[in-house]
Design brief:
Blueprint lengths: L8 H19 L2 H8 L3 H8 L2 H26 L6 H13 L5 H16 L1 H27 L9 H22 L5 H13 L5
Length: about 200
Amino acid sequence: MARPRTTSDEAILRAAARVLGRLGPGRLTLAAVAAEAGLAPATIVQRFGSKRGLLLALARQAGPGVRRYFEDARRQAAPGDAPLEILHAALGAMAATVRTPEEMANSLAFLQLDLADPEFREPAAVHFGIVREEITALLREAAATGGLAPGTGTAALARSVHVAYNGVLIVWAMTGEGGTLREALRTDLDRLLAPHRP
């Protein structure tokens, strides 16, 4: 009879994400992930096969996992919170996973894998699509409930919000402008959305 796993794959991937944030994909090692997860390196090899296998598993989990930020924002919303406030909460929680310019640099290093390697590009496209879908849904809800002006093109605005989100991450990492990353994001998104409010 096989021994039960005391640490789930999900817990290992959470540990890997923390190590990735600190070290980036180039300096990440299976030993570092094992230490973070409180496991022997052999366990990581047994579960994921290699560093590449671990990083691919992390990439594949990130796409569906990103929906959680939007689900959590909806669930935690106060009664009467407008869709645009839920949008702020979801994107703010996503941004809060990056705390320093160094972590942003490590995130961009992972993006290089997404862009250059077809195996990584596929889960990155899933992640991208889910974020755009969730943003679009909240903007449509805002338009339907009077939070956006009549006739607002929500699909085009969703693209602009998505672009602004990613742009704010980079500008904040370069300049530190706007306070915390979450504060900077709120300021720039409010500026973008202001002309579309009734």
